[in-house]
Amino acid sequence: MKVSIVALAAGALIGGASASVHERHADFHKRWASDSAPAPAETCGCKTYTTTIYGEATLIPQLPSAEVNSTSVLPETTPAPVSTVIVVPVPTPMVTTCETPGTYTFPASTVTLTSTTVVCSASSTSVAPGPCTYGGVTTSVSASTTVTCPYATVETSGSVVTSIIKTTTYVCPSAGVYTIAPTTTSVSESTVFVYPVPETYEPGTYTAPVQVVTITETSKVYVCPFETISPSSSAPPPPPSTTAEASSAPPPPPPSSYVAPSPSKVSSVAPPPPPPSSYVAPPPESTYEAPPPESTYEAPSSVAPKPSPSSKPKPSSAPVHGDKWAITYTPYTTDGQCKSSDEISSDVAGIAAMGFSTVRVYATDCDALENVGGACKASGLKIILGVFIGPTGIGGSQDQVTDITSWGSSGNWGMVEMIVVGNEAIFNSYCSAEELAVFITTCKGAFGGAGYNGPVTTTEPLNVLTEAASSLCGVMDVVSANIQPFFNADVTADDAGDFVASQIKLVADCCPGLEAYNLECGWPSSGSPNGAAVPGRDAQQKAIAGIIEKAGGKTVIFSFQDDSWKAPGEFGVEQHFGCSDHF
Questions:
Q1: Interstrand relation of 358-360 and 382-387 (parallel, antiparallel or unpaired)
Q2: Cα 194–195–197 angle (5° rounding)?
Q3: 469 in a domain, yes or no?
Q4: 377 burial via Cβ count (<10 Å: 0-12, 13-18, 19+)
Q5: CA distance 119 to 9
Q6: Domain assignment present for 296
Q7: Which residues are catalytic?
Q8: Which helix (H) or strand (E) segment is 448 a member of?
Q9: How many domains, in total, are found in the chain?
Q10: To which H or E segment does residue 153 belong?
Q11: Do residues 235 and 263 lie in contact, with contact meaning Cβ atoms separated by under 8 Å?
Q12: What is the DSSP secondary structure assignment for residue 550, as one 8-state letter?
């Protein structure tokens, strides 16, 4: 894996972003209708005028070293950690390359702006081998028009690379979504590009807090974001101290349902970390290849399909009522293929009849925007959209952003309750917290530019969210986690509601001031016990009823139907979270 730095800002233009790429095994978690999106129907002619350059092109100066603290983790013979840091006079994130492992202290910094300033900040994207396009400015127009906007680019003179702001005029021949001044190239291996983007800062005071981090990798890129990313009308609060990659690492969260783990011990002091998401997108019909076998993995085709929700016996308990907000929905048949539009319409009408007001989808495959979105509109329901990040990383999710932007700007934003960028992408090592923060910001810009004014967030298990909060809280509009009470061995079905309500309070504590939500929560109807957590139809009914009673207004119930195409997973429960017949 390589990282290409295609732009460095000189003087007042220097900004940065942290990027890291994690390779994983075959993509079990996402199915795509196609490998690439069709080319846009229209193209734009352009004229480019250089209007403003913030800072002269100069040689990149010798970079000072960050203060280094000694650490007992390293042997005495290891050279002292050395880092390079770029200090900026505007509140773009400060980027530091830590060349050697060790403990680093990054001092607090305060920047005060007296006038509106446009500078080159930075963004990043992961791309797969082959031709790729990245960067540029995305805009949406409702009719034929001429668009004039600033964009960031780089100029190279010898060994000097300077990021500058230019202005370009595009003539857009018709309504649509256009990307202005993107970069097109080709790479031979998976690569992370860091490139300049224009960013506007209003007058105010911006602060970057003290950061004390322990680095365990060589040449690690670390980003210190400014805590106040909107203008401050009063003195900034005292800068907090946060720790990243602590030398005494916490135990890892439970593995994905496609990895056969050995049973983990439950601590008597604190509950075990929350489980991974139960959502795993099935493989595409025409390109499915069985993944490399794990110790207990069985391919979906070898699993006998469970009866559909409509054919299950009704539980003896009364139907679940109460505060029902949302339920997850995946538009797949029992064997993992895409449902027809008529089947989806019937399902969504059933969800409306159950008393839910909102449907959550994880991605845009199987024509989810048109089919699920259309069915929700017909049934008077809201929709929570998802930008799914899989093993190919953020670069593999760009088409979904374009699809959502185009669909939403066609008169559909009013039914969108929330957009979730990534579903446990950090937990699955599909991207870092810093990369995800940059991508969320990019998505918000694209959606907002196309007329969307609702919340954008991401979701992770609670323990991962807690560790990543310092990177994510500043870019999310609400804070969310996936809370699955069954995977806590001390929680019974009767206690599920109280447990979920207490966990939502911890989610809120991760990002004070943001509204907190639980975006995935259920109980299995079949499988093996996990300590006091026992699956079963009656247990599922009790758990769901308690969750809705205690936290229904903040919780997305998982899920509409069983997923027979999944692997059984730990405790053999992953196929059995369908609960629609309890309503």
A1: parallel
A2: 135
A3: yes
A4: middle
A5: 9
A6: no
A7: 424, 520
A8: helix 433-449
A9: 2
A10: strand 145-157
A11: no
A12: H
**H or E segment and range at residue 103:** strand 102-106
What is the bridge-based pairing of β-strands 416-423 and 382-387? parallel
d(CA 451, CA 409): 6
| Cα dist from 65 to 68, 105, 185, 231, whole Å | 8, 11, 34, 30
The residue to which tokens 């505060």 are assigned: 323
Amino acid at 262: S
Q: Please check whether residue 344 lies inside any domain of the structure.
A: yes
This model's pTM is above 0.70:
no
**Cα dist. 42→11, 150, 183, 356, 504 in Å?**
38, 21, 18, 40, 46
User: Would you say 518 and 507 are in contact if contact means Cβ atoms under 8 Å apart?
Assistant: yes
Contact predicate 215/102, CB 8 Å: yes
pLDDT of residue 90: 55
Rounded to an integer, the average pLDDT of 535-544 is 97
Supply 398's token pair.
């760009």
Residue with tokens 């500078």: 119
- Residue 485 or residue 151, greater confidence: 485
pLDDT, tens only, 338-394: 999 999 999 999 999 999 999 999 999 999 999 999 999 999 999 999 999 999 999
Contact of 535 with 527, CB cutoff 8 Å: yes
Specify the CATH number for the domain of residue 532: 3.20.20.80
Task: Report the alpha-carbon distance of residue 431 to residue 21 in Å, rounded.
Answer: 6
CA atoms within 13 A on the CB side of 177: 22
Long-range contacts formed by 331-334: CB under 8 A, 24+ apart: 331/361, 331/366, 331/368, 331/371, 331/372, 332/31, 332/282, 332/366, 332/563, 332/565, 333/565, 334/305, 334/306, 334/308, 334/562, 334/564, 334/565
- Using the predicted structure, report yes or no on whether residue 4 has a pLDDT greater than 90: no
Residue 209 and residue 326 in one domain: no
The domain containing residue 210 runs over which residues? 2-21+54-130+151-162+183-224
- Residue that wins the pLDDT comparison between 334 and 159: 334
- Same domain, residue pair 513 and 379: yes
Residue bearing tokens 């429960």: 573
Backbone angles phi, psi at 378, to 5 degrees: -65, -30
The residues that bridge with 121 in the sheet, in sequence order, are: 197
Q: Which two tokens stand for residue 179?
A: 């990307």
CA distances from 463 to 82, 435, 450 (A): 31, 18, 34
Ramachandran quadrant class, 453 (left: phi over 0; alpha: psi -120 to 50; beta: rest): alpha
Which residues, 6+ apart, have CB-to-CB distance to 353 below 8 Å? none
Q: What's the CA gap between 6 and 153, in Å, rounded? A: 10
pLDDT averaged over the chain?
73
Q: Are 9 and 165 in contact (CB under 8 A)?
A: no
In a shared domain, residues 187 and 334: no
Q: What is the pLDDT of residue 93?
A: 58
